[in-house]
Predict the 3D structure of the following.
Amino acid sequence: MSYENSYLDIGRVSSVLERLRSATGVVIQVLSLLAGLIAWELYASTRPGYLFPNLGSIYAAFLEQMREYALLSALGHSLITLAVGFLLAAIVGVSVGIAMGLNEYLEALLNPYINALYVAPIAALIPVLILVGGPSFETRVFIVFLFAVFEIAIDAYEGVKTTPDDVLEVARSFGADRWFIVRNVIIPHDLPYIVAGLRLGIGRALKGMIIGELLIEFSNLGAIIRLWENDFRIAGVLSVVVLVMIVGAVLINGVKLLGARLIPWRTEVDA
Amino acid sequence: MTMGSNITVENVSKYYGEGEAPVHVLDSIDFSVDEREFLVVLGPSGCGKTTLLKMLDGLVEPSSGRITVDGSPVTEPRGDVALVFQNFGLFPWRTVRRNITLGLEIQGVTKEQRRRRADELIELVGLSGFEENYPSELSGGMQQRVGLARALAVDPEVLLMDEPFGALDAQTKDQLQTELLQLWGERRKTAVFITHDISEAVFLADRILVMSPKPSEILYETDVDFERPRWNRRVEIERSDRFARIEREIREQLNLLPAE
């Protein structure tokens, strides 16, 4: 039918346009990054190096940390904390979020806590956490968990609550029971929300990881930051910060890629 | 031979809300639909047509009165009645094929049979080659073909359609009306079709019920006795005097004739 053919042509044209647009996006991103680096370098040239190090000295500090401070092994250990804390947050956050969305008693019971703790300054609670858990790996994992879990739970909950009535009605019209609806309507609709929550959650988890290593137990990357800070060698602080930023960007994009694989259909949520 | 369905609606009323000011949607509706009859319910927007249809499907409970399909009362959605939705109601996360097998999955049909049945229907509604596409990749007309195939997949005795072409552009609507009649000729079911489009009603129906605005009651009933099949004689039928006469009668009932 000519009807379907015209549809396909439109699809092809729009996919070419889309690719063009995303290519332009990449170019703009690279240019913006370059502009930022140049601006940094120009400003750094007017300041004393120990206060505002230029890019060269940050890179030099990075190389020195690789050689003499076992930077990569510290990163590896930091990432273990991150992985354990984030995984727990993902499991607990997604389950609690979905359960709250499905059950109004649970919703009424947990909503105040989730929302209050989501905005609570968790960093300020660290003395309490040390008192309870001591300066340990477990306490640091718990901080990572706390930073990420509420974001993930709230997003998963939101997805359940926004399931459109019309698809629910379709399922009921065909005689679906509650369990079928949860598995085949509510959870698929929630999936993009869950992935969005994980993407935001991993950024927060990373912050929790560094704060834990700076304030709870001087260890791994946090310990390296502390050592260089104490010597007023700002370049060495910034080199670790940049490293964490890069790791964060990689992880966030990893979650995005996972989302794209998990969700091949078009959604209104930018997962 | 299995018995076809006939539908009876006895003295059905519907109120929404409680307390001092419930909204009175339907008022003592009484009618029946014969086996394999194509009934069109015609009425202005917001007259409770959709509510009536959802009651036939078992999605909404009447406030009073009784509805039966094939002799047994409708109390919940059942397998021998299928509904086609105005806004298609496709699952965005399912491909065309898996949207069509939805009802079969719920009924516990095996995977192999579901697939065979889906492919048969995909062919029937002219969507071959789009089995693995998602609904967002289809035009509105193609999406409603999926909606129709999904309803037919469970091989219902009764096919309910809630303004199924109301969201489509005029040409696509025209095309799908013709296709629907062709399909219905091949697989004759008891059909209840809701619309506010008068010429659509006259072209499709064996019989038309005209409803009043809220609280709705049946204003008028008319038989439409053009011979079937009609799908291949559309222009002839729509140009006929009989068509014009029926349309005029309905317009009179709905106060849609300009004062002369």
About this structure: The mean pLDDT of chain A is 91. Chain A has ten helices and no strands.
